[in-house]
Write a structure and sequence with these properties.
CATH class of the largest domain in chain A: Alpha Beta
Strand order of the largest sheet of chain A: 9-8-11-10-12-13-14
Protein name (chains A, B): Acetate--CoA ligase family protein
Oligomer: homodimer
GO molecular function (chains A, B): acetate-CoA ligase (ADP-forming) activity; ATP binding
Low-confidence stretches of chain A: none
Number of strands of chain A: 29
CATH architecture of the largest domain in chain A: 3-Layer(aba) Sandwich
Distance between the termini of chain A: 44 Å
Largest interface: A-B, 83 and 83 residues
Largest sheet of chain A: 7 strands, mixed
CATH superfamily of the largest domain in chain A: Succinyl-CoA synthetase domains
Keywords (chains A, B): Ligase
Number of helices of chain A: 23
Structural class of chain A: alpha/beta
Helix content of chain A: 25-40%
InterPro entries (chains A, B): ATP_grasp_subdomain_1, CoA-bd, Ligase_CoA_dom, NAD(P)-bd_dom_sf, Succ_CoA_lig_flav_dom, Succinyl-CoA_synth-like
Mean pLDDT of chain A: 91
Pfam family, one (chains A, B): ATP-grasp_5
């Protein structure tokens, strides 16, 4: 491994500037940890006040060290930081950690200090973590630089670990570490990122993606400052079959205010983050206990799994409750195939259930041969992805050997839930079976894990942007009117309404006659984004007289309501028949770049927030997935005996809009088709109106 | 207390028929528990095989007992049950518990056995619990009749308790008991109801409402067989300031199938259950751990609380996460009042937060005087209902005394969350502060508890049905057409469209001219419920010619599509202008009786399942609450600068429909107004169509 962050995250030697001899001081705690847990590298405490700390020689200043350490940890005040970094750099130190608060999070003076620090790092090429940082730990080498008391209270692992924490909060890092260690999982890296003045989240994530130890990353995110870097790091994680489990803070207004106050982070759009996480198969988590359990489940990701679960209980009630909770969480409980039911029925009495959930009844646990037969049938049928067994403690104990045996024979994922006091838990875990002692926690961890497995099976790498079709049209830099926007989109293959531009009433009447009534009349101006609001749209015009009336009324209204708009004329279109209206938009997200959004037209979509989002590129197949995710998708799919809409044509148009956005220069803020009218199957879709905002 | 179930739930003497000398057998385990835990009443084992069991004299048969016990427990096979009950009854036994399975849950033969048992109970007046029952326990008197190993594994309480379990599953009862005892809460009654052949859920609930010990009931419900009894018992609970926390199984299709298979229960409509729970201020729970924590929180219900929460942390990140989770769970985090912020700012540095969430920063914990000042400000402001503090273990320890002091001075609800290893937890609990060691569990318990407190403050008893307005109209028993339905509703004050009935085209034309065009034409027939589907509605008819065409087309269509319908004529109404359309329906729920449902008209309401429900009676104020619960309520409230709708008039009409349903005989299955057109404010609402199904 030869990553830029190597001296920071895997240092061979560490110096502490502002070292203390007391283990309860921030300048002393990490030195205490290093010496107690057997760090193998060199440690150089620096403090003119001491000759020796924790049995180590203490130096008067950085210049006195016998050699340049990989990493310097600065336990000194904010104002002294950059001068000291300069001295470290002169000595040959490659990386530094800055504990001090009092930078960007603390008003204008702090912001100036931070800018100064950033300038220095940029010029010198030094890797500076923080400021406002609790410090780091590489648990594989016991390289401790964090003043986190959790390393004294949580049991220390032996040997290397595969779970890493990467958090934008020291407290969250410590809380996660405690929970992960409570489950007995060994840790690779303990990373919190502080103010991210010089090294930000994605670069750490990139390191962990390359780290040979790390397999699972528990992330806490307030704001991503490098969306492209994040996407790339997640793609590397995916390639290496590693997994990021992330809690994103600021999903509510109050939460967003809190993260801004915390690390001056901008929480961003939760829908966008969610869609990016989904596309990159990141598991989004809600709380710490769930994250730790997901890290534990990730150890079993080599087992085949997915959303189709069989629930096995000794109690009809528990079967019902688990069915309710799993289905509400997005999993499926398919009916068991007839042949599997037949195997089960051989030993399950009439009052038991052989569908799904299965109630094997209490008697069955006394017949290990039959229990194994049942589990083998469930482990081998193609109709299932996973098996979850709920049994009171002593019953689980009686079945434990059978479960372990079958789990050793089949690669299928097995989980056991026991809210009692089973003694077999460790044995089951060693046999590769997930074990839970709480029903709610089991559901909250199993559901996202199994859905992750489902997506992982289906996963296709994010395509490199396809070669863009040559557009015959250059984008005008001074803004575009509707006709120009439609023309631009049309050049990428978006089907657009035939429209004719008129600059006089007479011309409009000629066009209308050519198109045949009824027609639509729209004002044409790059200066008017919302035509309806200024009386710039007239629908369903039936004849020449009505056209004249509408034309006059429109001109009067525009003169009054948009007196300064430059008017290019009017647009005449044939009035469309019935269909389903979509809104399709693409815009530059400040974090992740170009994103696409689809939703059904109309106010209710807004009220029910029924939209779906995706990073670009968006293929026709992706577009189809996006439409299917809408709660209102049934309206496209032949709702209440209505004809099915031409979804394939809609997907083509959506993919074409995505192409048009990808090809557009950065100055294009947003492209929107509203509405995209989707006619009935076989009759296509058509953009009735479009908007390009620069 | 002099409840009918007293001999069953508080027996002074118990006999065991089919007694065993072994503590691991169902006929022995409860006798072992009774003797070990010091039950004070008489115990009479009955089994001709033994002279003595557990040091007690064992009798050859029930007839040999020296006196009639209050309660007989039957540990014998299903077929022998009713004959034995007859002998018990002859002896003078007042109540019995039947363990045996093999009744209604097991096919036709079992159903016949159960009917026989029910007949006997009805005739004899004997109180029979079960069959298919794990047995009961009164932990106040240590009257054990359950074969539940959990009484051997969970620590036994000393003295009486105030938490009772009431479940339609023995396994769930045991699982809940274990969790409640793990939290150290003492239990009053352990009740599972089995097949409920003779005593059903509500009667037990009614007993617990009267029980002087019980304050909190943890319920598990698959099906309520007596909705009216349940409502009444919940009202008694409310009156006595007791609390029911209920998990309802079967909220998904698969869950519903499972409960049906389990106890042949019909899961019913989850929306209806949910609305009834809300009206009766029952807390609906999702899993067992949550229920146990809610039982613990209920011990603090004397503290003032509600939905407005202040979150106090030492970490911006934790503040953000808690804000997100609490708000997503339905709580509010109001901004703190300026004067409170000023108190906080005196000791909180600039980089801390004094809004809400509050980040007091780590330094503050070392100044107990200031911590108390902060907490007093939060405990006394009218802008809040509750205070939640999240602190890592050692920081919570440093603040513990201050929190306890302030909690003793103010009645406000305080909770503390520590995912570390605070040592102060027990002290805080003794001071009346809720303490959690997991963030997810804390939110899942606190949110429903605080929302329950909010509703409890606002709670008005369910009004007795008001004296109904004298309706001039008797309901026709042979079905009603639209005009008759509207007339019936009108007599209760539902504003209805003026409509004129015609039996010929000429008559229709005369009516149309009188009303003035445009008009609506509708077929009039009690036999046609869905007029649109048979071509029985024509809207927006502009003139006499068009009316003639529509009339003819309608008659042709009806002749073809509903050839057997008896036609009363056609209805002519004036065409209505714009407005918001509601669907308002009332129907007899098989469990709870008459229920009202409101939603916005149109397909999207169905797709988004955006409806709200209420038990009758429904006042205008209730109707207003129901409308406000709709996600689409903004459409009534001046959405996007549209005029506000006449919500007051809509509420009047909804309340009037509820009256009409309440006054209708049982034979009326459903009354629906679709649509109720709500015009803009001040212009009223009007029922455009109505349906009464017998």
């Amino acid at each position: 491994m030869n990553h830029r962050l190597e001296p920071l995250l895997n240092p061979q030697s560490i110096s502490f500037i502002g070292a203390s001899a007391r283990a309860d001081r921030i300048g002393g705690m990490p030195i205490d940890l290093l010496t107690r847990y057997g760090y193998d590298g060199d440690i150089y405490p620096v403090n003119p006040k001491y000759q020796e700390v924790f049995g180590l020689k203490c130096y008067a200043d950085i210049e006195s060290l016998p050699k340049a350490p990989d990493l310097a940890v600065l336990a000194i005040g904010a104002k002294d930081v950059t001068p000291m970094l300069e001295r470290c750099h002169a000595k040959g130190v490659r990386a530094a950690i800055v504990y001090a608060a009092g930078f960007a999070e603390e008003g204008p003076a702090g912001r100036a200090l931070q800018e100064h620090l950033e300038d220095f790092a940029k010029k010198s090429g030094m890797i500076v973590a923080g400021p406002n940082l609790m410090g780091l730990a590489n648990l594989n080498t016991q390289a401790h630089t964090a003043f986190a008391s959790v390393f004294n209270t949580a049991p220390m692992q032996e040997g290397p670990g595969n779970v890493s924490m990467l958090t934008q909060s020291g407290n969250v890092c410590a809380a996660l570490y405690a929970l992960v260690r409570k489950l007995g999982l060994p840790v690779s890296h303990f990373i919190n990122t502080g103010n991210e003045a010089c090294v930000e989240f994605s670069e750490y994530l990139n390191f962990l993606a390359d780290d040979p130890q790390t397999e699972v990353v528990l992330g806490y995110i307030e704001q991503l400052r490098n969306g492209a870097g994040f996407i790339q790091a997640c793609q590397t994680l995916q390639k290496k079959d590693k997994l990021l489990i992330a809690l994103k803070a600021g999903t509510t207004d109050k939460g967003a205010v809190a993260v801004q106050s915390h690390t001056s982070a901008l929480a961003g759009d939760k829908h966008v983050y969610r869609s990016v996480f989904e596309k990159l198969n990141v598991i989004e988590a809600q709380d710490f206990a769930q994250m730790a359990l997901l890290a534990q489940l990730a150890q079993l990701r080599h087992r085949t799994a997915g959303r189709r679960v069989a629930v096995i209980t000794m109690s009809g009630a528990l079967g019902a409750i688990l069915a309710d909770r799993f289905i509400e969480a997005g999993l499926d409980l398919p009916d068991l195939p007839i042949d599997v039911q037949a195997v089960l029925r051989k030993g399950i009495p009439d009052y038991g259930m052989v569908g799904n959930p299965v109630d094997v009844t209490g008697n069955v646990v006394n017949d290990p041969g039959f229990v194994q037969e049942v589990l083998r049938a469930l482990a081998s049928t193609d109709a299932l992805d996973a098996v979850v067994i709920y049994a009171p403690g002593y019953m689980l104990d009686r079945m434990a050997d059978s479960i372990a045996t079958v789990a050793s024979e089949y690669p299928r994922f097995f989980a056991a839930i026991d809210t009692g006091r089973a003694t077999c838990r460790d044995n089951l875990r060693q046999a590769g079976i997930a074990v839970f002692d709480d029903l709610g926690l089991a559901v909250s961890a199993l559901a996202p894990f199994l859905l992750w497995q489902e997506r992982r099976k289906a996963q296709t790498p994010i395509a490199a942007p396809a070669t863009l079709p040559a557009s015959g049209l250059a984008l005008r830099k001074d803004g575009m009117n509707e006709a120009q926007a439609l023309q631009y989109l049309s050049s990428f293959g978006v089907p657009c309404k035939e429209d004719l531009i008129a600059t006089t009433l007479q011309e409009a009447q000629t066009h209308a006659a050519a198109l045949a009534y009824p027609v639509v009349l729209k004002i044409l101006s790059a200066d008017i984004a919302h035509k309806t609001e200024v009386g710039g749209v007239a629908l369903n015009i039936k004849d020449e007289t009505q056209l004249a009336e509408c034309y006059q009324a429109m001109m009067d209204s525009i003169r009054e309501k948009a007196p300064n708009a430059h008017i290019d004329g009017v647009l005449v279109q044939k009035m469309e028949g019935k269909g389903v209206e979509l809104i399709v938009g693409a815009r530059h997200d400040p974090v992740f770049g170009p994103m696409l959004t689809v939703g059904l037209g109309g106010v209710l979509t807004e009220i029910y927030q029924d939209t779906s989002h995706s990073l670009l590129p968006v293929s026709e197949q992706d577009a189809n997935e996006l439409l299917k995710k809408l709660k209102a998708f049934p309206l496209l799919d032949g709702y209440r005996n209505a004809p099915k809409a031409d979804v394939a044509a809609a997907c083509k148009a959506i993919a074409a809009l995505a192409q048009a956005m990808a090809a557009a220069p950065e100055s294009v803020r947003e492209i929107e088709i509203n509405p995209l009218l989707v006619r009935q199957q076989g009759q296509g879709a058509v953009a009735l109106d479009a908007l390009i905002l620069m």
